[in-house]
Structures are given as structure tokens and as C-alpha cells.
Amino acid sequence: MTARAVWSGVIKIAEVVCPVKMYTAATTSDRIALHMVNRKTGNRLKRLYVDEKTDKPVEREDQVKGYETSEGHYVILEPEEITAAVPDSDKVLKVDSFITCSQIETTYFDRPYYLLPASDATEEAFILIREALREQKAAAIAHTVLFRRLRPVLIRAHKKGLIATTLNFDYEVRSSKQAFKSIPKRKIDPEMLQLAEHILKTKAGTFEPEKFEDRYEAALAELVKAKVEGRKVIPLRRPEVTKKNDLLEALRLSAEGKGDETNSERKPRQRKASASTKSKRTADKPAAPRRKAS
């Protein structure tokens, strides 16, 4: 890869040791960068750390990490003390166990990285690990120190290489049971469920991330362009939320292929349809007898 490796070390499975290099798999470098500026002067702002008691700026060499033992009292931790306290495994992805891919709970996924062999001489061991994982449809649970922090890592075969995904610790992931406990049990109308299933079938597709559209970035780019050109920015209309009583009708329209229309687009058509229906009914109704002129 042309990118710079963010980590170099070895994968250790029992007595098999394979040197690898780690590269970031996701990047935000192509996003639009916005900066904080002074509204009055237009100048860019810079972050400044100040002492909360004296209100004076603190030089970089005097900025250290601390743990609050009681209100306003801290134990200072020097950078070299933190480094010395970190477990000595910052260059080893030590595999603890293997799990089947079906067991993977994606809630724990953090960030993905690509693993490549460190050199041509280590390719055989690398390919052996990759193919063994692929054949068994398994993933390896390992741990190492990344960016000064001990992290659990999930290693999976992916095409010609390996993907290492850092994992969140259990205490970092909120309980789904607690998160969803306020959602009540409710029986769904069979017709509504049938329509929903029909919509899922008609909308079935394949995972094609290259077709994903970052609408936020596109809208932000258009906003910046409009401001630079001095054009008026027209805000987009938000779609109306489907009301409880309109849910069945919304499902029916979606099943008929009209689900992408917004409520505002649907309403005139409904009114028009109602008007035409009304005129048809009027036409079908026998004309009232005319009054004779006196």
C-alpha cells in the first residue's frame, strides 16, 4: 500500500509468528473541513488551554494528564509513567481464541484496519493464517496495544488480506436490553405486516457500498458553493412523519411503487383524485329538473 503503516508488529498464534503491518481502512481526509473563525474579523481561531483558577495560558510542556481523587485535587501522571505502566504487548497481536463469524456481535465493532505481510519473506505464514481462517469461517480474537491503549482486536480473512477491527470493551457498550426496555409489545395488523414484507421483497438488493451517497457532504458542499457565489440558500423540505392512522395507507402506496413520493407530493394528487371522483359522481347523477319559467 502507498499509505503509511500506523502499526508494525507480529501476529502470534501459539508458536506461529508472522510479521505484519497495519493500515487504516477508513479515512475522513476527503470530507469537507470546517474551521472555527471569529465572526467579526473572519480570522481563524486556535485552541488555547488556560488554568481554570488563574485564567492564564499554560505552555505545552506544562500540560499533563491527571486523575481527580477529590474535587479540585489531581494525581499527575507523567507521559513516561503512563508508557511504563502499559502492558508489554504493543508490538504483538497475541491471539487468545477463535470464534465462528456467526458469533460476531457488530455492536462491539470500533474501527477497521488492513493487515498486510511485513515483507515478501513473511508472505507464506501470512497466507497460511488467512486461508485457515477462511476455510473454517472463523475469526481470531487477539489483543495488543494500539495508540497507547490495550485493545481487543478481531482478525478476519478478507479477499487477499486480513482485516483487524478494534473492539469496544463490554463496559463501553450500552446494554441493548436497557436501551429498548421502554418499547412496548404490540400486535401488528396482518395486512400491514404482509404489505411490509412485500415492500422488502421488491426493494431487495445487494451490498454495494460504492453506491452509498453522502448526502450531508453533498449538501454541505452545495451550501459552501452557494455562499461563495452569493446565491440564496433554499432549505430543503423535510418529509412529514407518517401518522399512526395513515400507516396502512402509506404501506399501500409504498407497495404500489409510490413510497418514494413525499407527503407534500402525494396530497395534491389525492385532492385531484378526489375532485375527479366528485365530478364523475356528479356526471353519473341524474340532472335535477329545471324550473319552468313563470
Automatic annotation (TrEMBL):
One of its GO terms (molecular function) is double-stranded DNA binding. It comes from the Bacteria. GO terms for biological process: DNA recombination; double-strand break repair via nonhomologous end joining. Pfam families: Ku. Homodimer. Interacts with LigD. HAMAP family: Prokaryotic_Ku (MF_01875). This is Non-homologous end joining protein Ku. The gene is ku.
